[in-house]
Amino acid sequence: MPLLTEDAKGVYVIAVTPFKEDGALDDASIDRMVDFYEEAGATGLTILGQLGEAPKLTAEESRLVARRVIDRVAGRLPIIVGVSAPGLAPMRELADGVMDMGAAGVMVAPPWTLKTDDQIYNYYASVGEALGKTPFVLQDYPLTTNVAIAAKVIDRIVRDVPTCVMLKHEDWPGLAKISALRALSDKGETRRISILCGNGGLFLPEEMARGADGAMTGFCYPEMMVGVVEACGRGDMDRAQDIFDAYLPLARYEQQQGIGLACRKYVLAKRGVIASAKQRKPGSVLSPADVADIERLLARQTRKVEEIAV
């Protein structure tokens, strides 16, 4: 599999980690999930992210999930693996292992202890040194990490760390950050890297208009993200907005703190993608009222999607 580069674009779906009811890894569901995302038009997959419940896996389980996914795609899709860790040694160990398996690159979120611009820069400079030639994605998700990374700091990292080839943009609000980074590269003042956006796709049409290259998130209907990115690529912003609008109520509901992952897994299980919506503890559980909300939103979404002939 070719390595991840600055030219990456499209939809890299953030995959959940399927578990059986007893909490064990569900290999059969992993296979079905990979097939589902590929059939939905995903450009690539990102595994072992925060909503993939990576912190709840043992080191061996992380390797088993990566091996299962990489073997299943058999080189048809690039795989990015989350390797964020408190220390650089375990990060490099997992990164080296998954790259040997055939991963295209890895993703690294900053530890919550980083507070200043210099600390953030020095951390990612150290990540670049630790990972060697492995290309990596800088995950900018301050709502979860509590680390705010200014555009000027990202630019400094991009200039000095050549293996940083992609930004996973999940700042909120963050449209100005995309504009600032693209203005710098458009003027030739810095290297242009890939920008893929998260936050459940809630701002995807606007992010694409600002210069993003696609999406990297895990909304339970990846066909929305694929449709929006493809329509934007054709310059058909009205069609992109129509597709986005049809799915927006459910995407908004799924982005709730606390029950968001439970909602995502519930819908994926309902769609037959995974056998169980089980999360490893600690995890959230949907109430009967939550389920009623989701079912109502799904029914309305089905009608809207039929109306616009997605």
TrEMBL record:
GO terms for molecular function: 4-hydroxy-tetrahydrodipicolinate synthase activity. It comes from the Bacteria. Pyruvate binds at M216. The keyword Glycoprotein does not apply. The keyword Lyase applies. Pfam families: DHDPS (PF00701). One of its GO terms (cellular component) is cytosol. Keywords: Lyase. CDD domains: DHDPS-like. PANTHER family: 4-HYDROXY-2-OXOGLUTARATE ALDOLASE, MITOCHONDRIAL, DIHYDRODIPICOLINATE SYNTHASE. Belongs to the DapA family. This is 4-hydroxy-tetrahydrodipicolinate synthase. It comes from Kaistia soli DSM 19436.
